């Protein structure tokens, strides 16, 4: 499953444009006074301005499975990585065979670079913006994660992520290429103490050569 486009909100379009274009280096595809779209690897990330918006999203980006250390060095002069414990910034997801680091964007959104070792995306070139391969996760907040997950599976021929222990509080739909991370409201976004909230989100995903639009 591929997340081809994600649309979320920002209360400051100018600062968001500056962060994603100058800090992360994403190419601006389109921009006017109400929205901006970026090329994020093979995905498109769109921000729509809402001056009254006062919440956050969680997004993850796939990076080459061998480039986490280089990604950490690349981040040093750009963003402050979130410490997991002591001075360690790396999270190991043993069941998912992946390692990740976390940081915030200008909006306070929780961003993640994740290296999934079961993907054949080893890269020789030095890590840079072009090493950010695609949007791999978007957080969705719902009172019944399992029920919503099953509904999406039934309607759109999707599947629960086989590597995840899906539960009533946390469920993942998709695969290593793209995941919908469904959590209950007020569950803290790992590794922070920030409770999850349901926010307007539009998702275009590709699965089995079919494009599906989801609105939350």
From TrEMBL:
InterPro entries: Glyas_Bleomycin-R_OHBP_Dase, Glyas_Fos-R_dOase_dom, VOC_core
Domain VOC stretches: 2-116
Domain of life: Bacteria
Organism of origin: Flavobacterium shii
Protein name: VOC family protein
Pfam families documented for this protein: Glyoxalase
